[in-house]
Amino acid sequence: MPFTLEICCYNFRSCVIAAAAGAHRIELCADAAEGGTTPGFGTIKRVKEKIGIDVYPIIRPRGGDFFYDDDEFTMMKTEVLLCKELGCEGVVIGMLKQDGSIDKDRCKQLVSLAYPMGVTFHRAFDRAVNPFEALEDIIQTGCERILTSGHKPTALEGVQLLDELIRQANDRIVIMPGSGIRAANIIEVAKKTGAIEFHSSASIKVNSSMLFINEGMQENLQTIMADKNEVAGMQENLAAYFASGTAE
């Protein structure tokens, strides 16, 4: 397989949809409103029981920034070990120091605890003070890939830096573009960066299936769900692009 499509899923049903539509790996998260936090272990267990592709839960105890205190780091270590017990293929981490540099020591500890699981460094990278120094620091931690939008809100906006990072990485670590990637633009990102791994939530909002909703509560009961057509479209577009021989 010349490329990898990872789908960020915020619930069990999305994982099933994404896997059936052709995703190669799941980043499993909770709380889309916070940008993803550690999912419940009942969710992780059920996902592992039901789908046959790699599952990488995010290890993030809260939303907000990526500077964590000692108690939060203790929770993260526990969560890594529990993911390993549940048979996950990897985890997703990211920690910064207050000055915006990579917290190498703590990342190394989590990578060591995770072994033999793989470890992705998430978009905390996009909040680092110097992306080129951060890349070298993350390589030293033992992470296998970096999820990044190239220090911009979306990967398409960050293609220039993504291209530079991929060249600097020189196959020592995978640079995986993510954020705002859809079927309509994934080939443009691939062409402009030379990436071979891609990340997307491929999400849509789905209305509640409840027959009764109390309008007096003024609630939005929509759920963020993976869109099977988006996942399939990205997979098909990438397959055609890499099969065409035009990919560098």
What do these coordinates show?
This protein has a single domain, classed as TIM Barrel. It is α/β, with parallel strands linked by helices and 248 residues long. It contains eight helices and ten strands. A four-stranded parallel beta sheet has the order 3-2-1-8, covered by helices on one side. Strands 4-5-6-7 form a four-stranded parallel beta sheet, covered by helices on one side. Helix 1 (12-21) packs parallel to helix 8 (228-243) and helix 3 (70-85) runs parallel beside helix 4.
SSE inventory with pairings:
Elements: E1 4-9, H1 12-21, E2 25-28, H2 41-50, E3 54-57, H3 70-85, E4 90-93, H4 104-114, E5 118-121, H5 131-141, E6 145-148, H6 159-169, E7 174-177, H7 186-193, E8 197-200, E9 203-206, E10 223-226, H8 228-243
Parallel strand pairs: 1-2, 1-8, 2-3, 4-5, 5-6, 6-7
Antiparallel strand pairs: 9-10
Helix pairs in contact: 1-8, 3-4, 4-5
